[in-house]
Write a structure and sequence with these properties.
Layout lengths: L2 H5 L5 H18 L2 H8 L2 H22 L3
Helix pairs in contact: 2-4
C-alpha cells in the first residue's frame, strides 16, 4: 500500500471509489452488479475492508522489521 493510503486519515477514499466504479463497469459487461453484490455485498465496503486488512498486516510487518 502507498504510505498516503496506509498512514493518513484520508485513506485513499477517492481511489477506492474509482476502483469500485471500475469493478461495477466491468461487472455490467460480464453480468450484473447485483450478481457481484449478492456474492460479496457492498462493493465499496468489500474493497475498503480488504485494503484495510492489507494495511494492518503491512504495518505489523514494518514494526517487526524495525521500521
Amino acid at each position: 500500500m502507498h504510505a498516503d493510503e496506509q498512514m493518513s486519515s484520508r485513506r485513499g477514499r477517492e481511489q477506492i471509489q474509482q476502483l469500485a466504479d471500475r469493478l461495477i463497469a466491468a461487472a455490467n459487461e460480464q453480468g450484473t452488479q447485483a450478481q457481484i453484490e449478492a456474492e460479496i455485498g457492498n462493493i465499496f465496503a468489500y474493497i475498503r475492508s480488504r485494503v484495510d486488512s492489507k494495511n494492518v498486516r503491512e504495518t505489523a510487518r514494518l514494526k517487526l522489521d524495525g521500521q
